Amino acid sequence: MEESYYYGQGEFELAEIAADGSLGPWVWAGDVSELTGTLSQTAIAHRESYSGKKAKVREFFTELGIDWSATLHQLDVNNIAKFTLGKVSATTAGTVTGEAFPTVVNGDVVQLDQLNVSDLVLTDSLTPTPATLVRGTHYDYDIYGDVKIIALPTSPAPTQPLLAAYSHGATQQAAFLAGERKNYALRYKGINLAENGQRCLVEMYKVSAGLIQTLAMITSGNQLASAPVTFSSLLDSSKSADGPLGQYGRYVVLG
User: Fold this and answer.
1) Binning pLDDT at 50, 70 and 90, where does residue 221 land?
2) Does residue 1 register a pLDDT over 90?
3) Neighbours of 113 (CB within 10 A)
4) Distance between CA 144 and CA 118 in Å, rounded?
5) Least packed by Cβ within 10 Å: which of 41, 85, 144, 218?
6) Amino acid 123: pLDDT
7) 3-state helix/strand/coil string of the chain
């Protein structure tokens, strides 16, 4: 028998399965440093009662399955949404004028309605000629839309409410646990470095994606952040039970 070994790298992809069973486009999940499949089965055994030895005379198996675990390193909005039951939305860049603050005093922090903020100008509500406050003297702000009141003018005091005018850049977001659970097809396009880059394919026809096990947002040391996720393989009844593809998935070596 010819020796063969495996040392794998490759691309991990997912495709959403629509309600009608159709398959959406394959989407690369980015750098995945681990992909491991664990097969499972439930044994049912019977031991005889006539010999005094209680010997096992029958054993068969049910509840066959394959569970997968993967470690993601691309923590973008789409990956976060897939594995937190997230609901994706986006805002386009724009400008805001006349956003009113609540009544404020020195030391207060007010959050603007938008994020990715720039070019913020604060004025008071005096009409017809509102007074303009000075950044660094009267207030300061950051890109997250937090505005800190440093020291309000005293002579004269500003007419409240203060009014904000600013620009904001585009944003994307995934609202945690706000979306619907989805099923996916899973595909791994492998490169076997132990056999001169021989190509292989692992394809699972239908999987249920679990939630991210750990979402590490503060990192230290010399390791990049990672997110472990799991998948449970489901029976794909649209495929023939006796066909060459099976009803769960397949492992293919490209000759």
Assistant:
1) confident
2) no
3) 11
4) 10
5) 218
6) 97
7) CCCCCCCEEEEEEEEEECCCCCECCCEECCCEEEEEEEEEEEEEEEECCCCCCCCEEEEEEEEEEEEEEEEECCCCHHHHHHCCCCEEEEECCEEEEEEECCCCCCCCEEECCCCCEEEEEEECCCCCCCCECCECCCEEECCCCEEEECCCCCCCCCCCCCEEEEEECCEEEEECCCCCCCEEEEEEEEEEHHHCCEEEEEEEEEEEECCCCCCCCCCCCCCCCCEEEEEEECCCCCCCCCCCCCCCEEEEECC
Of 114, 120, 115, the closest CA to residue 138 belongs to 120
Q: What is the pLDDT of residue 167?
A: 98
Compute how many other C-beta atoms are within 10 angstroms of the C-beta atom of residue 108. 14
pTM (2 d.p.): 0.84
Indicate if the pLDDT at residue 13 is higher than 90.
yes
Quick one: pLDDT at residue 205?
A: 98
Neighbours of 11 (CB within 10 A): 15
Give bridge partners of residue 23 from the DSSP assignment.
17
User: Given phi > 0 = left and psi -120 to 50 = alpha, else beta, which region is 81?
Assistant: alpha
**How many other CB atoms are found less than 10 A from the CB of residue 200?**
17
Model confidence pLDDT, tens digit, residues 91-115: 999 999 999 999 999 999 999 999 9
Who contacts 175 (Cβ-Cβ below 8 Å, separation ≥6)? 86, 87, 89
Question: Which is nearest to 72 in space by CA: 179, 250, 211, 178?
Answer: 211
Q: What percent of the chain has pLDDT over 90?
A: 96
